[in-house]
Amino acid sequence: MTQSLAAQYQTQVHCTEETIDPEFWQNPHGVEVPHDNLKFLYVPDHVSTYIAAQVARKVYRYQIDNICTKEQITHAVMITMGGLLPGVLLHDHLAWTLNKNIPPIEFGTLGVRYYAGPGQPLDRPTIIHPLSIEVEGKVIGVVEDLVDLGGTARFVANYLTDERKARKVVLIAPYLKSTGLLNEMDVIYYGHVPKDTWIITPRERVETLIKRVPYWRDRGATLQECEHSLREIGYPPYLLEIYLRATYERG
Fold it and tell me: Are 192 and 173 in contact (CB under 8 A)?
């Protein structure tokens, strides 16, 4: 019997490394909770590691395909904060090489802010931390955790090519919400998520809880209902013990 969507979600959010379902995680669906118009997708640590490995394989394929074009990626810029976790995981795969025709990739950072919170884009991206590596004349991989409206990616691509004189930008991200950028630049990615789904990566579990619990409370949710919603999303008990009550009772 085919699992219901809710049961499939619970199975994969609580999966082991041996039971990761690639088909689910390439096109995942989130879970609905009361008092919210967003769905939520909780990504476990080992799933993030798995997805990074699959993205790294695609980067490697890109490098192989571009041996003759001389457009191989030699530098990667992690966009903070979102791009740090996938970037660090990708670094483990891509900063070294066993093939003399594939260059090792040098990693750096650029701080860009585009979201105030879940589903709350700012009017425009802004640079909050300067670029940490030299990119002039290089093919640059820009690492993000998610491509939503594409505003950050376009902003960074223009900044790197126009102001920092990079030769080319390739976007690298685990997930896309919009396919519009596929017609504008090379994009290496793992899967798609619906526009109404908020992805909770291992780096933003507390942030999402602290920002969303008051939203639910102000729309009538009790403390117990908030706890139930977070458990349905996939939150572990230790995080609820540390943060839930204090967040709910905060003015």
Answer: no
Beta carbons of 109 and 138 less than 8 angstroms apart:
no
Going by C-beta distance under 8 Å and a sequence separation of 6 or more, which residues neighbour residue 241? none
Provide the token pair at 106.
């040098």
Query: CA of 125: how far to CAs of 54, 87, 114, 155, in Å?
Result: 29, 20, 5, 7
**Coil, helix or strand for 223?**
helix
Give me the mean pLDDT over the 50-74 stretch.
97
Residue ranges in the chain assigned as alpha helix (H): 5-13, 22-26, 45-65, 84-94, 151-158, 205-218, 223-233, 237-249
Radius of gyration of the chain (CA): 19
Sorting pLDDT into bands at 50, 70 and 90, what band is 116?
Answer: low
Q: Note down the domain range covering 237.
A: 204-251
How many angstroms separate the Cα of 145 from the Cα of each of 26, 115, 215?
14, 13, 24
Within a domain: 23: no
Q: Output the CA torsion 171→117→212→86 (10° steps).
A: 30
Same domain for 227 and 151? no
76 DSSP 8-state letter: E
